[in-house]
Write a structure and sequence with these properties.
With about 500 residues, the protein is an alpha+beta fold. It is built from eleven helices and six strands. Helix 1 packs parallel to helix 5. The two termini are about 55 Å apart.
């Protein structure tokens, strides 16, 4: 396969990250729970009723999942629940994720194309054993002599021969091989870039399950508190210390928290299914996360250092550069079809009536082929190669700009997420104190339980804000490592400390 016609996978790999972002972050946006950017108002006194997320009509019609969102499951599911750390999940993903497998197959295909192009430059050796029996009519050759039979034969002979051909000078085949060699290099770089995307996908899914588990734990704590409030309100209503509406309000709050817990549990199980799909766990295999992802500020390079690292390490950039070189060589290969070529051919064999009685024969030939006119085929091939070259050059220049954009936006997102985590952590403490004071005021009959319900919703909002902010921060660090081209090795260097501790 010529490099000019081989897709480089640059655009698909670039869009895969966006596809995965949509697949992982969309569940957060779909939940009717407080978010980072738009926390609900705490002054209305209305509890937010959580609802299960429903797919959009467009997602039901367009079903084109990225290969990085799938895998090839390995093994059989066991009854026991297996532990799964972040390192284990990444290792499984790099082995079983469909995107990683496709990358390996693309490299094998490109290497096969390189070997095929190389074969045109190497000697071609063949052996032949030939036996022929026949008669020849002299009339068909224009001979008809008196006294000479018009048909000669039957006669037979056998020929055993070895032949070899060798291209001495063929610039078209040489440039084609060089183009295929660059294609193979591009495929290897693309495979490495795909592994970074697998790390991004699996790491994000792991962080999502951690966030979903934290939401379930928070929902359970909220339900326990609302159950206690409902019981207290019921006692105070019976003792005529509070109006009946306080009991109704507490019951609504308890039922709302029950519904929130059910929705959060379903979301957590769906997130676990997503993670299992990404890393190739057997269908139905139960697992428990063992890496408690906590908050750890970014300790890597600054934006300028990250840019230098990206331009030196991004494998998709290296793949684009190799693809550009391959397109240049493919154009030169097409243009070289106009040039003369030189080849040698030789054979040696034994020929005779039978192989027991033969004579040695051989031939040696040298051919110089000078193309004169092929109906414009060469000009069309050159024009096609120029179009491919222009496209590869534009893709390469665009990718360099995209690398700069991704690094700078990743630092902006990371800075915003880091601030959100720090503020959200403080808000949790403040909201918890406000709830404690509201509960004391209600117990002492100073106020109704409206204040308690509002304070409980504020605690829920603060916890959700922290969970979402922590997910965004960890995902931002992972995205920055991918933007730097260091996701596979950097996840252990810069993110290993986040797997210890909590909030």
């Amino acid at each position: 396969m010529s490099k000019a016609n081989r897709p480089t996978n640059l655009l698909p790999l670039g869009t895969l990250a966006l596809l995965f972002l949509a697949a992982t972050v969309a569940p957060l946006a779909a939940q009717d729970t407080p978010g980072i950017l738009a926390p609900p108002s705490m002054g209305t006194g209305t509890a937010v009723t959580p609802r299960p997320a429903a797919p959009s009509p467009a997602s039901l019609v367009t079903r084109t999942p990225s290969p990085f969102l799938g895998s090839v499951p390995a093994g059989e599911a066991t009854a026991a629940e297996i532990p799964l750390s972040l390192e284990d999940a990444l290792a499984r993903g790099l082995e079983h994720n469909l995107g990683a497998i496709d990358g390996d197959l693309d490299v094998k295909s490109a290497e096969a194309a390189r070997l095929k192009a190389l074969s045109a430059l190497l000697p071609q050796l063949s052996g032949r054993l030939h036996h022929q029996t026949g008669e020849i009519s002299l009339v068909q050759f224009g001979f008809q002599l008196p006294g000479v039979p018009t048909v000669i034969g039957p006669f037979s002979y056998q020929d055993a021969r070895v032949s070899v051909t060798q291209e001495i000078l063929n610039l078209e085949d040489l440039r084609h091989y060089q183009s295929a060699r660059e294609s193979a290099r591009a495929a290897r770089f693309s495979r490495q870039d795909g592994r970074d995307l697998v790390v991004l996908a699996v790491g994000s899914a792991y962080y999502q399950v951690v966030a979903s588990t934290a939401r379930v734990d928070t929902a359970r704590a909220q339900l326990a508190a609302s159950q206690a409030l409902d019981e207290l309100a019921g006692h105070q209503v019976q003792a005529e210390l509070s109006p009946a509406i306080d009991g109704l309000r507490a019951t609504v709050q308890r039922q709302t928290d029950e519904q929130r817990l059910a929705v959060d549990q379903a979301a957590m199980e769906k997130d676990k299914l997503t993670l299992a799909r990404l890393i190739g766990l057997p269908a139905g295999q139960r697992f428990a996360l063992t890496s408690q992802v906590g908050y750890q500020p970014w300790s890597g390079p600054d934006p300028e250092g990250a840019l230098k690292a990206a331009f030196a390490s991004r494998n998709d950039l290296k793949s684009a550069e190799a693809a550009l070189h391959a397109a240049e060589l493919a154009k030169r290969s097409a243009a070289a079809a106009r040039l003369p070529s030189l080849g040698l051919a030789a054979d040696y064999g034994q020929v005779g009536k039978n192989l027991a009685s033969t004579d040695s024969t051989y031939t040696i030939a040298a051919d110089v082929v000078v193309p004169l006119w092929n109906g414009g085929k060469t000009g069309a091939a050159v024009a096609e190669a120029e179009v491919v070259l222009a496209r590869r050059r534009a893709e390469y220049e665009d990718l360099k700009g995209r690398v700069d954009y991704e690094i700078r936006t990743a630092f902006l997102d990371l800075g915003a997420a880091q601030t959100s985590v720090e503020v959200a952590k403080k808000n949790i403490d403040l909201a918890a104190k406000a709830l404690e004071q509201a509960q004391d005021r209600f117990k002492n009959g100073v106020t109704g339980n409206v204040e308690v319900v509002l304070a409980a919703e504020a605690v829920a909002a603060a916890n959700e804000n922290y969970i979402a902010s922590l997910f965004s921060h960890n995902f931002g660090k992972l995205s920055l490592l991918r933007a730097m081209g260091l996701a596979e090795q950097g996840v252990r260097q810069y993110l290993s400390s986040t797997t210890t501790g909590g909030k």
